[in-house]
Design a protein that fits this description.
The structure holds two protein chains of two kinds.
Chain A (H helix, E strand, L loop, with lengths): L4 E5 L3 H13 L3 E5 L2 H10 L4 E5 L7 H11 L5 E5 L4 H9 L4 E4 L4 H34 L2
Parallel strand pairs in A: 1-2, 1-3, 3-4, 4-5
Chain B lengths: L2 H5 L3 H44 L6 H30 L6 E4 H18 L3 E5 L6 E4 L1 H18 L5 E8 L4 E9 L6 H13 L3 E7 L2 E9 L4
The chains are: A alpha/beta, B alpha+beta.
């Protein structure tokens, strides 16, 4: 299977650097963004299998970023990253359309499993949409 | 101010004390969790690199040095937060005592800066030229400053500035001034709460506007001559 393409959004530069390096070692292709604005630009211009999104960010907060990313790409598989103090926000984020949440510090096994699940769901969504399009075309053509 | 002044406070104000204590410790615990996450991921990166080395992937000493430096830096950050949180926690040991006002405010500013940075607001503190030893309630001073700064932040816009200055007002009073862009005035109930808290220290709070700015001036007696 192709490498999953992941976008990591977190305002802590050192956290971004270390986790993105690790995710590359684990076999993912990783882009990073230091905040909501940069993340929106990235998702508008590229397809990601999963987005790892920190909720506690300055300026555009994680919840706002989540809402706006889903407006641009409703099919995005967003996994939110929370501190202990923001688990309630993690639940709120899932109500708004995030597919999962994980608490910091994030364990490798959990993170890899959640990214792979997200990639599989995105792939399934893509295939379903493709099937629907093909069916529509076939109906229109009368085949 | 005497310890008895503090003992006579209403239950309502004491509940406010707990809320302040809770908000500050929650914010610091969040910061500590971020620091631990970076250290945890750095240790994980070392494990990943060592596993790679065992399968023949070259291991660069520079990379290991960078990871060690990162762990050392983040550990230092964590120790600093814990030291500051400890100083804050001990500010409740005695209701009234002698302390150096600049140090107290510097500690509070370091612990509250996350609230400002989450809103994209700059908090700048100017300290008095000379040390300001004062006998009063360190907890109440921190609480009032926190409540005023939090109130400003609730209305602040990105890139706003909050200036906090500490100076000697006269022979016996210290003067703390918080200035920011006026984005509406504080609710009368809040202003009354701050005045009540400062009143326990026999001090006063003045709120005024000057052009586009709002100014909160706190006068506290007890400065040692």
């Amino acid at each position: 299977m192709a490498k999953a393409v992941v976008l990591l959004v977190d305002d802590e530069q050192e956290f971004r650097e270390v986790l993105s390096r690790r995710m590359e070692i684990w076999g993912f292709k990783v882009d990073t963004a230091p905040g909501g604005k940069e993340a929106l630009k990235k998702v508008a211009g590229k397809t990601y299998d999963a987005v790892i999104l920190d909720l506690a960010m300055p300026e555009m907060g994680g919840i706002e970023t989540l809402k706006r990313m889903l407006e641009i790409r409703p099919e995005l598989q967003i996994i939110v990253l929370t501190g202990h103090a923001t688990v309630q926000d993690g639940v709120e984020a899932m109500k708004l359309g995030a597919v999962d949440f994980i608490e910091k510090p994030a364990e490798k096994e959990k993170l890899v499993a959640k990214i792979e699940q997200a990639r599989d769901r995105r792939q399934e969504l893509f295939e379903n949409q493709l099937d629907e399009k093909i069916s529509d075309i076939m109906k229109k053509k009368g085949w | 101010m005497t310890p008895d002044d503090n003992n006579g406070r209403s239950q309502k104000l004491k509940n406010g004390d707990l809320a302040f204590f809770g908000a500050l410790t929650a914010s610091v615990s969040h910061e500590l969790n971020n620091i631990i996450s970076i250290i945890d991921q750095s240790a994980g990166l070392l494990t990943d690199l060592l596993a790679g080395a065992q399968s023949g992937r070259p291991l660069s000493p520079e990379q290991l040095e960078r990871i060690a430096d990162r762990i050392k830096y983040q550990t230092g950050r964590g120790v600093d937060f814990i030291r500051r949180l400890n100083a804050f926690a001990h500010s409740t040991d005695e209701p009234v005592r002698e302390f150096e006002l600049n140090q107290l405010v510097e500690n509070l500013a370091a612990l509250t800066v996350r609230f400002a940075s989450l809103k994209g607001v700059n908090l700048k503190v100017t300290y008095s030229d000379q040390p300001l030893n004062i006998i009063t309630s360190p907890f109440l001073i921190q609480q009032v400053l926190y409540l005023i700064i939090k109130n400003i932040l609730d209305r602040a816009l990105k890139n706003d500035d909050i200036a906090l200055s500490i100076e000697r007002h006269d022979r016996t009073h210290a003067r703390l001034v918080v200035t920011s862009m006026a984005r509406g005035e504080p609710e009368p109930q809040k202003a009354a709460e701050w005045k009540a808290l400062v009143g326990i220290m026999k001090g006063e709070v003045f709120i005024s506007t000057q052009g586009e700015k709002i100014i909160f001036e706190i006068l506290v007696p007890g400065v040692r001559t």
